[in-house]
Automatic annotation (TrEMBL):
InterPro entries: RNA_pol_Rpb7-like_N_sf, RNAP_I_Rpa43_N, RPA43_OB, Rpb7-like
UniProt-recorded name of the protein: DNA-directed RNA polymerase subunit
Family designation: Belongs to the eukaryotic RPA43 RNA polymerase subunit family.
Top-level taxon in the UniProt lineage: Eukaryota
GO annotations of cellular component type: RNA polymerase I complex
Organismal lineage: Eukaryota, Fungi, Dikarya, Ascomycota, Pezizomycotina
Function in brief: DNA-dependent RNA polymerase which catalyzes the transcription of DNA into RNA using the four ribonucleoside triphosphates as substrates.
GO BP terms: transcription elongation by RNA polymerase I; transcription initiation at RNA polymerase I promoter
Cross-referenced CDD domains: RNAP_I_Rpa43_N
Domain RPA43 OB: 137-180
Pfam families reported in the protein's UniProt record: RPA43_OB
Keywords associated with the record: DNA-directed RNA polymerase, Nucleus, Phosphoprotein, Transcription
Length: 218
């Protein structure tokens, strides 16, 4: 009996090796499907970018140019959709000035910067560089958000306690049901938070954005 069991084990191992060789020969490799947590990490809408802008400086801030840049140009971008970044600015840091955009990208930027004055203009122009944290909910990015609004035709999510995401009924799983004034999942549990994939987003005026998502095909 022991000999037969060993023979069966050897046959199974041999078959496994043969299948592995055939798979490698065909150039195929078995890849485990990604989990929602993996997709949340790999397709996050939060991005860090470094940008350099050519901006005017008022004479009143000549003694404190970096503070002036922040007050006049960068701080007003907070929680606003900024088209050049194609996203909403969440924060910024490491502001530095330069006479050309290439110098601004260096961490050890110039110690002395000359602003440019043009004809009779009352302001000077300078290149300002900073590291920005931007919310870019591009299609196929993933969000984990809490339910804050729902009816029979839509599920509303709130991301980072600020951004709203609309999930139309047709983008909800077929197993979900509208029951007693709220959506419940396939197990009959009330949906309180969900991971969704962004379908599209667009600026909706006054610096805000409108996001549409789906819970199907995650």
């Amino acid at each position: 009996m022991a000999k037969k069991e060993r023979t069966a084990e050897e046959a199974a191992a041999k078959a496994a090796r043969k299948a592995e060789k055939a798979s490698k020969k065909a150039g195929k490799q078995v890849v485990a499907p990604k989990s929602l947590d993996d997709n949340l990490d790999e397709h996050s809408p939060i991005q860090r970018i470094t940008a350099t802008l050519y901006i005017p400086l008022s004479p009143v801030v000549n003694n404190y140019p970096i503070e002036g840049v922040c007050a006049e140009h960068f701080s007003p971008l907070y929680l606003q959709y900024y088209p050049p970044f194609d996203g909403v600015v969440l924060s910024y840091e490491n502001v530095r000035l330069s006479e050309n955009p290439e110098e601004g990208l260096r961490e050890d930027g110039p110690s002395t910067v000359l602003a440019r004055s043009i004809n009779e203009y009352g302001v000077e122009f300078v290149w300002a560089t900073a590291d920005f944290l931007v919310f870019r909910p591009a299609p196929n990015t993933y969000l984990k958000a809490e339910v804050n609004l729902q009816n029979e035709s839509i599920l509303g999510l709130l991301y980072l306690n600020y951004f709203t995401v609309s999930i139309p009924k047709e983008n909800l799983p077929e197993e979900w049901k509208w029951d007693g004034g709220q959506w419940v999942d396939a197990q009959g549990e009330v949906v309180k938070e969900a991971v969704c994939k962004v379908v599209d987003f667009e600026p909706s005026g006054e610096g805000s954005i409108s996001i549409t998502g789906t819970l199907v095909g995650l």
